[in-house]
Prior knowledge:
The structure is a single chain. By secondary structure, this protein is an alpha/beta fold. The protein folds into 2 domains: about 180 residues, Vaccinia Virus protein VP39 (Rossmann fold); about 80 residues, no CATH class. Helix content is about 30%, strand content about 20%. The chain is built from 9 helices and 10 strands. The strands form 2 sheets. Strands 5-4-3-6-7-8-9-10 form an 8-stranded mixed beta sheet, with helices on both faces. α8 crosses α9. It starts with 9 loop residues before the first helix and ends in a 7-residue tail after the last strand. The N terminus is likely disordered.
Amino acid sequence: MSEAGGRPGRGEDHKRRASLPKKANPRLAAGRARALGLPTRGTTNANRLRRVDRWLMATQLPRLRDAARPLVVDLGYGSSAVTTLELADRLGPEVHGLEVVGLEIDPERVTAVAADRDPPRVDFRVGGFELAGLRPVLVRAFNVLRQYDEESAARAWQTMCAALGPGGLVVEGTCDEWGRRSAWVALDADGPLTLTLSARVADLDRPSDLAERLPKALIHQNVPGQPVHGFLQALDTAWASAAGLSTFGPRQRWTAAVEALAEQGWPFVGSSRRWRHGEVTVRWSAVAPV
């Protein structure tokens, strides 16, 4: 399992999907939860998860500050501790008593980052979707579900959400190798809340280029008649209509496109200031499969 661990090659990805056991709850052995999940490639890059981390900084600090124990789990950090350490460095100055625990299902990856341990500020353990018996306030799970089939990915959501502490949140998504295109879903104990798209918009031909980064619950639903397809098509149309603003830069064009959708009634969440960063967050109810 790896936050930056990518999916297999495109052909292999569609031919063979990993799956989880049918049981929704992890089996217990000797008083400890059995780690649920499968290792992924483990590849990672420094600053790859900067987009989701910036969103966490902008939206989730109150959740962490209000927690009796501000515990964050970085699920599937990969073959290097770099993005876990970046997460701790970004959140730590803003949250007193912050604890970040990186979980990997491969024990060798945990051993490999032993020199980076600095408990309780940063620690690393063996664990999977059951979250190693921890009760975190926040879980960042990136690029860990691409290799699973949709049914198994849904069970992974349920397992992670069931392990959250009171008022906890799971942020599950994917990004490209360099972190320039990203999408994630925020979930709590009751299920999905929002979908966020985030990109270096200068690299986009159109917003629907982000479809390849959609989380597992949506990526195969991007077909006519499904809400997420309608959302991306509406964003593409607004982007095309704002072409005249390209003179002022792609961020202005993106902002204008999102503003147009907001005027049409799309239920966006959060501050409009986030739009200038090539980001938009929409309520899950507007894009959920039907």
